Amino acid sequence: MDAYFAHSMIEKEDFEKMEQYILDHVPAEDFAAVRKNLKPTSIILEEATDKAYHEGAVLEHGCPVEIRKSLEPLEKRLPDVVGIGFAKCGTGTLQFLDCHPSVTMRSTEPKFYNSKNAFDIIQFDGEGTPEKYDYLKKIEITAGKDKQKFLKFSKTVLTVNPKKQYAGSAALDVAKAMKILNPKTKIIGIACDPIKRVYSQFAMKNRRTEFKTSDGMDEEAIHKCRACLNKDLNETIKDFTENAQRLLDNGGNSPGFDEYARALEPFVEQFGDENVLLLDGENLITQPNQEWARLLEFLGLNKESMKFYIDEEKGFPCLEKPVKYCLNGAKGTSRKIDVRQEYPEDTAIWRKSFSPKIKEMILFKKICNKIDEKCCQKLRDEKSSFSWAHEYACLDV
Ligand SMILES: Nc1ncnc2c1ncn2[C@@H]1O[C@H](COP(=O)(O)OS(=O)(=O)O)[C@@H](OP(=O)(O)O)[C@H]1O
């Protein structure tokens, strides 16, 4: 056991303190297996480029300790559950799932499917259909350098793979390929208030620019960096507003950040509405236990098996059961700013631009059957999932 501590985030004495707490908080039937498997999670990369991981390091799994109920042998497996997005809405919080004894999840977001291999899988299907393992090998080869893709997992735990790009432009092929390889895949999307999402995205890119500039990157390189802001944050916001206004004036196309229904559609088509869960990213922050109960139920797990509390200092939920654990400090910065108060005129324009697509989302995921007074009354209740959508959907109801 001592060797594990050399490559983990946890000191031996802290782990010893955690051990009994964890064993007291896992289901009685999982106790023996969890005790046998319990150890600190290994660090696989000491310095990640994205600071959103554990103190800058990348762990082998999402949870800092390995809490597993399975004693079965491990094998290469495709994910049972796929998180398809949406960026800045709280996909990172799915990391908490890895602390559940029946679930396992990588701490990074390996990409099993891209437009090329998804297309190839669809082409192969039905034409002398190679064995599934050949498909997997094919993906492994085309997928390139990401060594973490085909980690071995036990058969008896759910494996989760969040990957926000799956909901992008190749979504139709990706959804079809997923269906061919694993027809039982369950899909999770996390939608959130697009006004907060826009700000969160720009603020993240701005942080990256500041970091890279202080690290010596010159202006030209910053300009080429797609993940950076190459203008001042306020100017970027002004540009976004101007574009949103132009689109409104020209008939109302979306400036982006709100196209939840369109992104979910291919997955609903392939797997059925009942296998595609849309979580509320805002409720994940304000009412974590309510939103997590929806998720656990969807995965067929006991709703009481994970509990959260809101950490006052962080202002965000942290896991309380089966282990105490908060996400890294890099997550949860921009949502501390009230964007509407900071940018009242810009956000008023954004609100109008986002309104049609948010209505579409409400109808598509059957949050309401119609956008009417009854629906608006339901959304007005701050405790209901998607209450943030009231502001967009009920502008003129
Ligand atoms: N429990 C908890 N702890 C910390 N942060 C939380 C939590 N729940 C939701 N959030 C919000 O998640 C936002 C980041 O979303 P993502 O993880 O999807 O971001 S990313 O796209 O992977 O970069 C992140 O956005 P920022 O505030 O801009 O950092 C948070 O507001």
TrEMBL record:
Alphabetical list of SUPFAM superfamilies matching this protein: P-loop containing nucleoside triphosphate hydrolases
Sorted UniProt keywords: Disulfide bond, Glycoprotein, Transferase
Gene3D superfamilies: P-loop containing nucleotide triphosphate hydrolases
Annotated positions binding 3'-phosphoadenylyl sulfate: S200
Record-annotated disulphide pairs: C318-C326
MF terms in GO: [heparan sulfate]-glucosamine 3-sulfotransferase activity
Residues the record marks as active site: K88
Domain Sulfotransferase: 79-321
Listed transmembrane segments: none
Enzyme type, top EC level: transferase
InterPro entries found in the cross-reference section: NST/OST, P-loop_NTPase, Sulfotransferase_dom
Enzyme Commission numbers on file: 2.8.2.-
Family according to the record: Belongs to the sulfotransferase 1 family.
Name the record gives this protein: Sulfotransferase
Organism field: Oikopleura dioica (Tunicate)
